[in-house]
Amino acid sequence: MSIGTRTITVGIDGSRASLDAADWAAREAGRRRLPLRLLHAGADPVVPARIPDVDVPAGRARSALDRAAIQLSYAHPALDIIARSTDTPAVPALLAEAAEAETLVLGSRGFTGFAGFLIGSVALAVAAGAEHPVVLVRAGELPEDERMPTVDGTPPSAAPYLPVVLGLDLDHPADDLIRYAFDTAAVRSAPLHVVHTWTLPPLRGYAPGMPLPGDTAEREDGKRHVLTSTLQPWRHKFPETPVSEQVIYGHPGHHLLKSSTRAGLLVIGRRSGEGLGRAAHSLIHHATCPVAVVPHN
């Protein structure tokens, strides 16, 4: 990716969810020392503006894009913020932005009564087709939600970051996916927890929690060795990032959802040219932290 296209871009539609996603995107842009680009797609375009020099003519009602840009410029005064609107429909506009941005961030409404996402068709279509990573942020996500709880009076903003969790398929251990996870953990000075899940065809008489048959246990040991070997070069590239590894028998959706309850970000892969699989759909809808969907070959 060229230096000129390195931005964090967020879709703005005026909803609470998109504003919470924009605040997450602003923090991510600050961590990565990149510009933040705000995009409003659809009807009622406004004149492009560079923030903080937003000049809204007297008597004109501020648009959702204007309001978001102004709020973010006050909350993140050191950030380079660029606001743009287009009358192109949302999905093609966001996919075009995703092709240029380092990361595209989208908001989603939270389920009422329990943690999780309620993802609209636009967000799903973009996450399934974008050329670069897409991060989905649920409504209500706060800065302190990505950090360790504090109990000794430490300000939340000074608390260490929660781990980044990477779900890794050892049959397709794509460099783009692993690089994104390591880099994301590094810019946070956060630990990285890598999870590989695997299954066999149904075993007669086996129930979850029972010891695996001998040959199956040997397969699991082999997968642990492969995971360690796969990550070894990345540990050398990111020597200051603590890395933990977990190989576990079972379905990825279940175990990665459990891991997401103790994570600041969940990173999952999507093979380029393919849509979102069943496990990815489950994780996107129900993870309790933001989810990054990273396309790879």
From TrEMBL:
Q: Which organism is it from?
A: Streptomyces sp. R41
User: Which InterPro entries does the entry link to?
Assistant: Rossmann-like_a/b/a_fold (IPR014729), Universal_stress_UspA (IPR006015), UspA (IPR006016)
Which protein, by its recorded name, is this?
Universal stress protein
- The organism's lineage? Bacteria, Bacillati, Actinomycetota, Actinomycetes, Kitasatosporales
The UspA domain sits at: 6-138, 161-295
> What does the similarity note say?
Belongs to the universal stress protein A family.
Q: Where is the signal peptide?
A: none
| One Pfam entry name | Usp
Superkingdom classification of source: Bacteria
